[in-house]
Design a protein that fits this description.
The chain has 146 residues and is an all-alpha fold. The protein has helices at 3-27, 31-64, 70-93, 97-130, 134-142. The chain has a single domain, classed as Up-down Bundle (Four Helix Bundle (Hemerythrin (Met), subunit A)), CATH 1.20.120. 86% of the residues lie in helices and 0% in strands. It is elongated, with a radius of gyration of 16 Å.
Length: 146
């Protein structure tokens, strides 16, 4: 696995861990820790989307000329997941555990399907197309903030 794929897949795993931590605190009714955990998860996920949408995807599209290909689908899915995040945030604010967990189940399904497509299809394409910029891209990805 190329270092770009390795970094991005590791970031998926970090988001998954934060997601699980949040879900567990909500299920326990620990609202203070649930709020803090959700904020960390939300920040990590939105940062991941920003790395892709604002840095990697535009470079990939420029190099390949595929502006309406897989990156367009991934951006659409990012927007869909961001909408579910907003619903989760509202449920958490209302301390509506069942609502939160229902939205979380939807997000988990979306994230799993999305991550498989990225990890098995798009990331290997990005590795091939941008291997000459790997060091620079990894450095720039580290500095993306939300």
């Amino acid at each position: 696995m190329n270092r770009l794929s390795h970094y991005l897949t590791g970031d998926h795993n970090r988001c998954d861990d934060l997601f699980a931590e949040t879900e567990n605190t909500v299920a326990d009714g620990d609202w203070v820790n649930a709020t803090a955990a959700f904020m960390a998860f939300r920040k990590a996920l939105l940062r991941h989307f920003a790395i892709e949408d604002e840095l990697l995807f535009p470079l990939f599209e420029e190099r390949t000329g595929m502006a309406s290909g897989p990156t367009m689908v991934m951006r659409s899915e990012h927007a869909q997941m961001t909408g579910v995040l907003a619903a989760m945030s509202q449920a958490l604010e209302n301390r509506a555990g069942n609502d939160y967990l229902g939205h979380a189940e939807t997000l988990l399904m979306l994230m799993r399907q999305h991550n498989i497509k990225e990890e098995q299809i798009l990331y290997p394409m990005i590795d091939r197309v941008m291997s000459d910029e790997e060091d620079s891209l990894l450095s720039r990805m580290e500095h993306v903030a939300t």
